[in-house]
Amino acid sequence: MKKQMLTADNCRFIGRTYDTGGDVWFALSGTGVEFKFKGSKLTLVFLGDEVAEKPDNEDNYPRVAVYADGKRAADTQIDSAEKTVTVFSDGEHDCVVRVIKLSECAMSCVGISCAETDDGARLLPTEAKPHRIEFIGDSITCGYGVDDEDPLHHFKCATEDVTRAYAYKTAEALGAEYSMFSTSGYGIITGYTEGDEKITEQRIPLYYESFGFSFGSFAGRKPHDIPWDFSRYVPELVVMNLGTNDDSYCRDHADRQADYTENYTAFLKTVRRRNPDAYILCAVGIMGQRIFPALEKAVADHISQTGDSRISTMLFDEQDGEHDGLVADYHPTEVTHTKAANALSAEIRRIMGW
User: Fold this and answer.
1) pLDDT tens digits, residue range 135-186?
2) Which of 43, 171, 294, 350 qualifies as a cystine partner to 178, CB 3.0-4.6 A?
């Protein structure tokens, strides 16, 4: 068997990735790697962060999937410092292999130290896709609970699958590359709350300019302490879906909605500064539409203040739990995600001409 490090010479990285000098780490939902594989044997050596090394922590172990020509060949959680996953053990294979982190960054991160192959195997990067999207969101973007059809159940990494959620489905439908920055429970001015106090540490703007946010660490570093180099991925389009968690606090309070509007406008300036040439599409509504007028005002204020014309809003249809079902913590089912992806794909084609 031959060990091959994963580098830009033999694979294409997906989303925000971090190289520690041989090991490649993934934090955010949907991050991963893709390569053409030709050979008979392929084993991937995954690395767990400090979360994976803790016993009795199953709810937070990172979940990853490995695809071969679009078919899921492996689906596992990384529950130790190192775990090997055999993709192929015999026969001849000539296919595209894609590794995707299915669970989100906050709970845990995962790395790959190398691919172990037969001596004659070849790894080559896949071709770049014609368009590039960045998604900024919360649990809906992460695919929270989509594999758990009981709305009374709560979060587990094992039931989170970003590939069954609207953002991943939209990128696939459009044949576009994607990068995601999403964390469950996080918003613009507060995280999800059932009270009247903001949870100010759970705000996407605090971490957007970093590699990600996580309770765990790897190689002695926290993801949110690693600045992200925005030149590594330059999107044509940024889709923002933030406001559902803010609405848990804002509700019908005009002053709180105004606070959301003001801070959303401020965050738009950060997103624009980091993505000067991208179109920005601001959407909300899958788990509730009440916050949408405050979002519309934020975008209108941004346009008024900056003259920025490459920005617009979109209101998703609200999920229909009676007909389409609900999953863990009353999150959207794959049926709902597919409907949202279809609507979003159509809007992107309209505004971008793809």
Assistant:
1) 999 999 999 999 999 999 999 999 999 999 999 999 999 999 999 999 999 9
2) 171
Burial zone of 19 (CB within 10 Å; 0-12 exposed, 13-18 middle, 19+ buried): middle
Domain 131-352: CATH class, spelled out: alpha beta
Give residue for tokens 């975008």. Answer: 299
Q: Is 30 left (phi over 0), alpha (psi -120 to 50) or beta?
A: left
Q: List, for residues 281-309, the tens digit of each pLDDT value.
A: 999 999 999 999 999 999 999 999 999 99
Pairing of the two strands 71-77 and 63-68: antiparallel
pLDDT at 333 over 90: yes
From-to residues of CATH 3.40.50.1110 in the chain: 131-352
Report how far residue 354's alpha carbon sits from residue 174's, in angstroms, rounded to the nearest whole number: 8
Task: Say if residues 208 and 181 touch (Cβ distance below 8 Å).
Answer: yes
Tell me how crowded residue 239 is: count the other CB atoms within 10 A of its CB. 27
∠ CA 17-19-22, nearest 5°, is 140
Q: How far apart are the C-alpha atoms of 34 and 52, rounded to whole Å?
A: 24
CATH class given for the domain over 2-125: mainly beta
Helix spans in 224-288 (H): 244-250, 254-274
Please list the residue range(s) of the chain that carry CATH number 2.60.120.260: 2-125
- Which tokens is 135 given? 């998604």
Q: Which amino acid belongs to residue 175? A: G
Residues 6+ apart with CB under 8 A from 235: 132, 133, 134, 179, 275, 278
pLDDT of 113 reads 97
Q: Is-above-0.70 flag for pTM?
A: yes
Residue 1 has pLDDT above 90, yes or no: no
